[in-house]
Protein backbone atom coordinates (compact mmCIF):
# COMPACT_ATOMS: atom_id res chain seq x y z
CA UNK A 1 0.00 0.00 0.00
CA UNK A 2 1.48 3.33 -1.01
CA UNK A 3 2.08 6.07 1.49
CA UNK A 4 0.06 9.25 1.24
CA UNK A 5 2.18 12.36 0.75
CA UNK A 6 0.87 15.28 2.81
CA UNK A 7 2.24 18.73 2.13
CA UNK A 8 3.15 20.70 5.27
CA UNK A 9 2.15 24.38 5.32
CA UNK A 10 4.58 27.17 4.54
CA UNK A 11 4.23 28.69 7.99
CA UNK A 12 3.67 26.94 11.33
CA UNK A 13 1.98 29.71 13.31
CA UNK A 14 -1.27 30.16 15.22
CA UNK A 15 -1.48 33.90 15.78
CA UNK A 16 -2.87 34.94 12.38
CA UNK A 17 -5.65 33.20 10.42
CA UNK A 18 -3.50 33.19 7.25
CA UNK A 19 -1.14 30.70 8.85
CA UNK A 20 -3.44 29.19 11.51
CA UNK A 21 -6.07 27.84 9.10
CA UNK A 22 -3.65 25.90 6.85
CA UNK A 23 -1.78 24.52 9.88
CA UNK A 24 -4.93 23.30 11.63
CA UNK A 25 -6.17 21.78 8.38
CA UNK A 26 -2.81 20.02 7.89
CA UNK A 27 -2.85 18.59 11.41
CA UNK A 28 -6.47 17.49 11.04
CA UNK A 29 -5.69 15.70 7.74
CA UNK A 30 -2.69 14.00 9.34
CA UNK A 31 -4.86 12.71 12.21
CA UNK A 32 -7.57 11.44 9.89
CA UNK A 33 -5.21 9.76 7.44
CA UNK A 34 -3.23 7.93 10.13
CA UNK A 35 -5.96 7.14 12.65
CA UNK A 36 -9.19 6.91 10.63
CA UNK A 37 -8.05 5.81 7.17
CA UNK A 38 -5.14 3.92 8.77
CA UNK A 39 -2.75 4.97 6.03
CA UNK A 40 0.97 5.57 6.30
CA UNK A 41 1.80 9.21 5.68
CA UNK A 42 4.89 10.98 4.44
CA UNK A 43 5.05 14.67 5.32
CA UNK A 44 6.50 16.91 2.64
CA UNK A 45 8.35 19.80 4.30
CA UNK A 46 9.70 21.19 0.98
CA UNK A 47 7.56 24.32 1.16
CA UNK A 48 7.90 25.02 4.88
CA UNK A 49 9.77 28.27 5.46
CA UNK A 50 8.95 29.51 8.94
CA UNK A 51 8.30 27.82 12.28
CA UNK A 52 6.83 29.92 15.09
CA UNK A 53 6.84 28.56 18.62
CA UNK A 54 3.05 28.31 19.05
CA UNK A 55 2.42 26.41 15.80
CA UNK A 56 5.48 24.21 16.20
CA UNK A 57 4.45 23.28 19.73
CA UNK A 58 0.96 22.31 18.60
CA UNK A 59 2.36 20.24 15.71
CA UNK A 60 4.83 18.48 18.03
CA UNK A 61 2.07 17.70 20.54
CA UNK A 62 -0.36 16.41 17.91
CA UNK A 63 2.38 14.33 16.29
CA UNK A 64 3.17 12.72 19.67
CA UNK A 65 -0.50 11.91 20.20
CA UNK A 66 -0.97 10.56 16.65
CA UNK A 67 2.09 8.31 17.01
CA UNK A 68 0.89 7.10 20.42
CA UNK A 69 -2.60 6.30 19.15
CA UNK A 70 -1.24 4.67 15.96
CA UNK A 71 0.75 2.18 18.03
CA UNK A 72 -2.50 0.94 19.57
CA UNK A 73 -4.06 0.09 16.20
CA UNK A 74 -5.07 -3.50 15.44
CA UNK A 75 -4.31 -5.45 12.31
CA UNK A 76 -6.98 -5.08 9.62
CA UNK A 77 -8.55 -8.22 8.08
CA UNK A 78 -6.32 -9.55 5.32
CA UNK A 79 -3.69 -6.86 5.94
CA UNK A 80 -0.21 -8.20 5.11
CA UNK A 81 1.90 -8.65 8.25
CA UNK A 82 4.71 -6.47 6.86
CA UNK A 83 2.35 -3.60 6.11
CA UNK A 84 0.84 -3.86 9.59
CA UNK A 85 4.30 -3.77 11.20
CA UNK A 86 5.25 -0.70 9.17
CA UNK A 87 1.98 0.98 10.07
CA UNK A 88 2.69 0.38 13.76
CA UNK A 89 6.35 1.29 13.71
CA UNK A 90 6.50 4.02 11.09
CA UNK A 91 3.04 5.47 10.63
CA UNK A 92 4.45 8.88 9.72
CA UNK A 93 7.72 9.84 8.08
CA UNK A 94 8.90 12.86 6.14
CA UNK A 95 11.42 14.31 3.75
CA UNK A 96 14.11 16.74 4.89
CA UNK A 97 12.99 20.38 4.72
CA UNK A 98 14.61 22.50 2.03
CA UNK A 99 14.94 25.42 4.44
CA UNK A 100 18.02 24.88 6.58
CA UNK A 101 16.72 26.72 9.67
CA UNK A 102 13.47 24.73 9.56
CA UNK A 103 15.53 21.54 9.49
CA UNK A 104 17.64 22.74 12.42
CA UNK A 105 14.52 23.44 14.47
CA UNK A 106 13.01 20.02 13.69
CA UNK A 107 16.32 18.35 14.51
CA UNK A 108 16.90 20.32 17.71
CA UNK A 109 13.42 19.48 19.03
CA UNK A 110 13.79 15.79 18.21
CA UNK A 111 11.03 15.91 15.60
CA UNK A 112 13.26 14.59 12.79
CA UNK A 113 13.89 11.40 14.76
CA UNK A 114 10.20 11.04 15.54
CA UNK A 115 9.64 11.21 11.79
CA UNK A 116 12.28 8.52 11.16
CA UNK A 117 14.85 10.95 9.74
CA UNK A 118 18.46 10.90 10.96
CA UNK A 119 19.87 14.19 12.28
CA UNK A 120 22.46 15.21 9.71
CA UNK A 121 23.76 18.70 10.53
CA UNK A 122 25.01 21.01 13.23
CA UNK A 123 22.67 23.36 15.05
CA UNK A 124 24.27 26.66 14.12
CA UNK A 125 21.39 29.15 14.09
CA UNK A 126 21.71 31.21 17.26
CA UNK A 127 17.99 31.46 17.96
CA UNK A 128 17.41 27.72 17.35
CA UNK A 129 19.93 26.77 20.05
CA UNK A 130 17.73 28.40 22.67
CA UNK A 131 14.53 26.56 21.79
CA UNK A 132 13.58 24.08 24.49
CA UNK A 133 10.70 21.66 24.63
CA UNK A 134 9.54 19.41 27.48
CA UNK A 135 6.65 17.01 27.66
CA UNK A 136 5.39 14.82 30.48
CA UNK A 137 2.26 13.49 32.14
CA UNK A 138 3.40 14.33 35.64
CA UNK A 139 3.37 17.57 37.64
CA UNK A 140 7.11 17.68 38.20
CA UNK A 141 8.59 20.99 39.31
CA UNK A 142 12.13 19.86 38.40
CA UNK A 143 11.13 20.11 34.73
CA UNK A 144 10.48 23.83 35.21
CA UNK A 145 13.95 24.55 36.59
CA UNK A 146 15.75 25.23 33.26
CA UNK A 147 13.08 27.76 32.36
CA UNK A 148 13.20 29.40 35.76
CA UNK A 149 16.98 29.76 35.33
CA UNK A 150 16.47 31.41 31.93
CA UNK A 151 13.95 33.75 33.49
CA UNK A 152 16.39 34.67 36.30
CA UNK A 153 19.08 35.50 33.75
CA UNK A 154 16.81 37.66 31.61
CA UNK A 155 14.77 39.34 34.35
CA UNK A 156 17.39 40.01 37.00
CA UNK A 157 15.83 41.36 40.16
CA UNK A 158 12.39 39.97 39.37
CA UNK A 159 10.87 37.26 41.52
CA UNK A 160 11.46 34.02 39.59
CA UNK A 161 9.28 32.01 41.99
CA UNK A 162 6.21 33.44 40.24
CA UNK A 163 7.41 31.90 36.97
CA UNK A 164 7.83 28.55 38.73
CA UNK A 165 4.37 28.86 40.31
CA UNK A 166 2.80 29.60 36.93
CA UNK A 167 4.49 26.68 35.19
CA UNK A 168 3.66 24.06 37.80
CA UNK A 169 0.06 25.29 37.99
CA UNK A 170 -0.19 25.03 34.20
CA UNK A 171 0.93 21.39 34.56
CA UNK A 172 -1.58 20.84 37.40
CA UNK A 173 -4.42 22.49 35.45
CA UNK A 174 -3.67 20.30 32.47
CA UNK A 175 -3.77 17.18 34.65
CA UNK A 176 -6.97 18.10 36.52
CA UNK A 177 -9.09 19.90 33.95
CA UNK A 178 -7.99 19.30 30.37
CA UNK A 179 -8.71 15.60 30.05
CA UNK A 180 -12.03 15.26 31.82
CA UNK A 181 -13.59 13.78 28.67
CA UNK A 182 -12.52 12.54 25.24
CA UNK A 183 -11.88 15.38 22.81
CA UNK A 184 -14.58 15.71 20.17
CA UNK A 185 -12.29 15.01 17.21
CA UNK A 186 -10.89 11.93 18.89
CA UNK A 187 -10.00 9.12 16.58
CA UNK A 188 -9.38 6.40 19.11
CA UNK A 189 -6.19 5.63 20.96
CA UNK A 190 -7.76 4.59 24.23
CA UNK A 191 -8.40 6.81 27.24
CA UNK A 192 -6.81 10.25 26.99
CA UNK A 193 -3.31 10.53 28.42
CA UNK A 194 -3.03 13.68 30.58
CA UNK A 195 0.06 14.91 28.80
CA UNK A 196 1.31 18.50 28.58
CA UNK A 197 3.92 20.10 26.33
CA UNK A 198 5.99 23.15 27.27
CA UNK A 199 8.04 25.21 24.91
CA UNK A 200 10.45 28.05 25.55
CA UNK A 201 12.27 30.27 23.13
CA UNK A 202 14.80 32.94 24.01
CA UNK A 203 15.47 35.47 21.31
CA UNK A 204 16.69 39.09 21.41
CA UNK A 205 16.52 39.09 25.22
CA UNK A 206 12.90 38.04 25.04
CA UNK A 207 11.61 34.81 26.56
CA UNK A 208 8.52 33.22 25.00
CA UNK A 209 6.89 30.39 26.89
CA UNK A 210 4.08 28.33 25.39
CA UNK A 211 2.15 25.63 27.17
CA UNK A 212 -0.09 23.14 25.43
CA UNK A 213 -2.38 20.24 26.23
CA UNK A 214 -4.57 18.25 23.85
CA UNK A 215 -7.59 18.13 26.10
CA UNK A 216 -11.18 19.14 25.58
CA UNK A 217 -10.53 22.89 25.54
CA UNK A 218 -11.21 25.58 28.11
CA UNK A 219 -14.85 26.06 27.10
CA UNK A 220 -15.87 22.41 27.52
CA UNK A 221 -13.74 21.92 30.63
CA UNK A 222 -15.49 24.86 32.32
CA UNK A 223 -18.87 23.38 31.47
CA UNK A 224 -18.16 19.80 32.60
CA UNK A 225 -15.92 20.57 35.57
CA UNK A 226 -17.23 19.88 39.07
CA UNK A 227 -15.45 22.94 40.43
CA UNK A 228 -18.18 25.49 39.63
CA UNK A 229 -21.94 25.11 39.19
CA UNK A 230 -22.95 25.32 35.53
CA UNK A 231 -25.38 28.19 36.20
CA UNK A 232 -22.59 30.26 37.71
CA UNK A 233 -20.31 29.64 34.71
CA UNK A 234 -23.09 30.70 32.32
CA UNK A 235 -23.87 33.77 34.38
CA UNK A 236 -20.23 34.98 34.26
CA UNK A 237 -19.95 34.18 30.54
CA UNK A 238 -23.13 36.12 29.77
CA UNK A 239 -21.34 39.31 30.82
CA UNK A 240 -18.50 38.79 28.34
CA UNK A 241 -20.50 38.72 25.10
CA UNK A 242 -19.16 36.62 22.23
CA UNK A 243 -17.86 33.31 23.56
CA UNK A 244 -14.31 33.06 22.25
CA UNK A 245 -11.69 30.89 23.95
CA UNK A 246 -10.12 33.98 25.52
CA UNK A 247 -13.50 34.91 27.07
CA UNK A 248 -13.70 31.44 28.61
CA UNK A 249 -10.22 31.91 30.09
CA UNK A 250 -11.26 35.28 31.53
CA UNK A 251 -14.39 33.66 32.95
CA UNK A 252 -12.29 30.90 34.55
CA UNK A 253 -10.04 33.52 36.16
CA UNK A 254 -13.04 35.40 37.51
CA UNK A 255 -14.61 32.20 38.81
CA UNK A 256 -11.28 31.22 40.39
CA UNK A 257 -11.29 34.50 42.28
CA UNK A 258 -14.88 34.06 43.49
CA UNK A 259 -14.60 30.38 44.61
CA UNK A 260 -17.91 28.91 45.56
CA UNK A 261 -18.75 25.23 45.16
CA UNK A 262 -15.37 23.53 45.53
CA UNK A 263 -13.84 26.30 47.55
CA UNK A 264 -10.31 24.94 47.45
CA UNK A 265 -10.14 24.42 43.67
CA UNK A 266 -9.73 26.59 40.61
CA UNK A 267 -7.03 29.04 41.67
CA UNK A 268 -4.36 27.91 39.21
CA UNK A 269 -5.02 30.51 36.54
CA UNK A 270 -4.35 33.21 39.12
CA UNK A 271 -0.80 31.89 39.44
CA UNK A 272 -0.39 32.28 35.69
CA UNK A 273 -1.67 35.85 35.90
CA UNK A 274 0.81 36.61 38.67
CA UNK A 275 3.71 35.61 36.42
CA UNK A 276 2.74 38.51 34.18
CA UNK A 277 2.13 40.95 37.00
CA UNK A 278 5.42 40.15 38.74
CA UNK A 279 7.47 40.91 35.62
CA UNK A 280 5.65 44.18 35.02
CA UNK A 281 6.09 45.76 31.60
CA UNK A 282 8.59 43.14 30.50
CA UNK A 283 6.03 40.46 29.92
CA UNK A 284 2.75 39.98 28.11
CA UNK A 285 0.15 37.25 27.95
CA UNK A 286 -1.51 36.28 24.69
CA UNK A 287 -4.88 34.65 25.32
CA UNK B 1 12.37 14.43 46.49
CA UNK B 2 13.83 13.46 49.83
CA UNK B 3 12.71 10.27 51.53
CA UNK B 4 10.61 11.91 54.23
CA UNK B 5 9.57 8.78 56.12
CA UNK B 6 13.12 7.58 56.78
CA UNK B 7 14.84 10.94 57.26
CA UNK B 8 12.20 12.66 59.30
CA UNK B 9 11.61 9.97 61.90
CA UNK B 10 14.95 10.89 63.45
CA UNK B 11 14.48 14.62 63.03
CA UNK B 12 11.01 14.64 64.57
CA UNK B 13 12.44 13.49 67.89
CA UNK B 14 14.57 16.57 68.34
CA UNK B 15 13.24 19.36 66.16
CA UNK B 16 10.28 21.64 66.00
CA UNK B 17 11.03 22.91 62.54
CA UNK B 18 10.48 21.71 58.99
CA UNK B 19 12.58 23.09 56.17
CA UNK B 20 10.56 22.20 53.08
CA UNK B 21 13.45 22.48 50.60
CA UNK B 22 15.67 20.21 52.70
CA UNK B 23 13.17 17.87 54.31
CA UNK B 24 10.85 17.39 51.35
CA UNK B 25 11.73 18.89 47.97
CA UNK B 26 13.12 21.95 46.21
CA UNK B 27 10.36 21.44 43.65
CA UNK B 28 7.00 21.30 45.44
CA UNK B 29 4.24 21.02 42.83
CA UNK B 30 0.81 19.59 42.25
CA UNK B 31 -2.13 18.79 44.48
CA UNK B 32 -2.55 15.02 44.75
CA UNK B 33 -0.07 12.15 45.05
CA UNK B 34 -1.22 11.06 41.60
CA UNK B 35 -0.12 14.43 40.18
CA UNK B 36 3.62 14.00 40.70
CA UNK B 37 6.52 13.27 43.05
CA UNK B 38 6.32 16.31 45.38
CA UNK B 39 2.61 17.02 45.75
CA UNK B 40 0.81 18.95 48.47
CA UNK B 41 -1.02 15.81 49.58
CA UNK B 42 2.23 13.91 49.98
CA UNK B 43 3.89 16.75 51.89
CA UNK B 44 0.86 17.05 54.19
CA UNK B 45 0.53 13.34 54.96
CA UNK B 46 4.19 12.31 55.05
CA UNK B 47 5.78 15.38 56.63
CA UNK B 48 3.41 17.96 58.04
CA UNK B 49 0.90 15.74 59.87
CA UNK B 50 3.56 13.48 61.50
CA UNK B 51 5.44 16.57 62.68
CA UNK B 52 2.30 18.23 64.03
CA UNK B 53 1.38 15.02 65.84
CA UNK B 54 4.87 14.67 67.32
CA UNK B 55 5.19 18.13 68.82
CA UNK B 56 2.89 19.38 71.52
CA UNK B 57 3.73 23.04 71.14
CA UNK B 58 4.70 25.13 68.12
CA UNK B 59 6.03 23.95 64.77
CA UNK B 60 7.98 26.26 62.46
CA UNK B 61 7.72 25.70 58.71
CA UNK B 62 10.55 27.28 56.74
CA UNK B 63 9.24 28.03 53.26
CA UNK B 64 12.33 29.59 51.62
CA UNK B 65 14.75 27.59 49.48
CA UNK B 66 12.33 26.04 47.04
CA UNK B 67 11.84 27.26 43.49
CA UNK B 68 8.36 28.40 44.43
CA UNK B 69 4.91 27.04 45.27
CA UNK B 70 1.88 26.58 43.08
CA UNK B 71 -1.42 27.42 44.73
CA UNK B 72 -2.64 23.81 44.34
CA UNK B 73 0.30 22.54 46.41
CA UNK B 74 -0.22 25.08 49.18
CA UNK B 75 -3.98 24.64 49.36
CA UNK B 76 -3.83 20.84 49.54
CA UNK B 77 -0.94 20.82 52.03
CA UNK B 78 -2.25 23.43 54.46
CA UNK B 79 -5.95 23.85 53.68
CA UNK B 80 -6.06 20.04 53.60
CA UNK B 81 -4.99 19.89 57.25
CA UNK B 82 -8.42 21.28 58.14
CA UNK B 83 -10.41 19.75 55.29
CA UNK B 84 -8.98 16.24 55.40
CA UNK B 85 -7.06 15.68 58.62
CA UNK B 86 -9.20 17.09 61.42
CA UNK B 87 -7.06 20.05 62.49
CA UNK B 88 -8.83 23.32 63.24
CA UNK B 89 -7.80 26.75 62.00
CA UNK B 90 -7.80 27.98 65.62
CA UNK B 91 -5.42 25.23 66.75
CA UNK B 92 -3.12 25.75 63.75
CA UNK B 93 -2.95 29.49 64.37
CA UNK B 94 -1.61 28.73 67.84
CA UNK B 95 0.82 25.98 66.85
CA UNK B 96 2.05 26.74 63.34
CA UNK B 97 4.70 29.37 62.62
CA UNK B 98 5.29 30.05 58.94
CA UNK B 99 8.51 31.68 57.84
CA UNK B 100 9.19 33.11 54.40
CA UNK B 101 10.93 36.15 52.94
CA UNK B 102 7.83 36.51 50.76
CA UNK B 103 5.07 37.47 53.16
CA UNK B 104 2.44 36.92 50.46
CA UNK B 105 3.11 33.15 50.64
CA UNK B 106 2.42 33.15 54.38
CA UNK B 107 -0.77 35.16 53.84
CA UNK B 108 -1.86 32.80 51.07
CA UNK B 109 -1.40 29.76 53.34
CA UNK B 110 -3.34 31.33 56.21
CA UNK B 111 -6.08 32.15 53.74
CA UNK B 112 -6.33 28.49 52.71
CA UNK B 113 -6.37 27.33 56.33
CA UNK B 114 -9.04 29.84 57.32
CA UNK B 115 -11.31 29.13 54.34
CA UNK B 116 -11.05 25.32 54.43
CA UNK B 117 -14.21 23.46 55.36
CA UNK B 118 -13.77 20.22 57.35
CA UNK B 119 -14.76 17.02 55.60
CA UNK B 120 -15.26 18.52 52.18
CA UNK B 121 -13.33 16.22 49.87
CA UNK B 122 -12.30 17.15 46.32
Describe the protein's architecture and organization:
The complex is a heterodimer of chains A (287) and B (122). Chain A is α/β, with parallel strands linked by helices and 287 residues long. Chain A has helices at 17-36, 53-70, 81-89, 100-108, 111-114, 126-129, 145-154, 161-178, 218-224, 230-238, 245-258, 268-279, and strands spanning 4-7, 11-12, 41-44, 50-51, 92-94, 131-136, 196-203, 206-213. Chain A has a three-stranded parallel sheet with strand order 1-3-5, covered by helices on one side. The radius of gyration of chain B is 13 Å and the shape is globular. Chain B has helices at residues 4-14, 20-23, 40-54, 71-83, 89-95, 103-115, and strands at 17-19, 59-62, 96-99. In chain B, helix 1 (4-14) runs parallel beside helix 3 (40-54), helix 3 (40-54) crosses helix 4 and helix 4 (71-83) packs parallel to helix 6 (103-115). The relative contact order of chain B is 0.17. The chains are: A alpha/beta (287), B mainly alpha (122). Chain A binds chain B through residues 138-142, 144-145, 148, 159-165, 168-169, 171-172, 175-176, 259, 262-265, 267-268, 270-271, and chain B through 25-31, 35-39, 66-73, 75-76, 79-80, 83, 102, 112, 115-117, 120, 122.
Summarize the SSE layout with pairings.
The complex is a heterodimer of chains A (287) and B (122).
Chain A: E1 4-7, E2 11-12, H1 17-36, E3 41-44, E4 50-51, H2 53-70, H3 81-89, E5 92-94, H4 100-108, H5 111-114, H6 126-129, E6 131-136, H7 145-154, H8 161-178, E7 196-203, E8 206-213, H9 218-224, H10 230-238, H11 245-258, H12 268-279
Parallel strand pairs in A: 1-3, 2-4, 3-5
Antiparallel strand pairs in A: 6-7, 7-8
Chain B: H1 4-14, E1 17-19, H2 20-23, H3 40-54, E2 59-62, H4 71-83, H5 89-95, E3 96-99, H6 103-115
Parallel strand pairs in B: 1-2, 2-3
Helix pairs in contact in B: 1-3, 3-4, 4-6
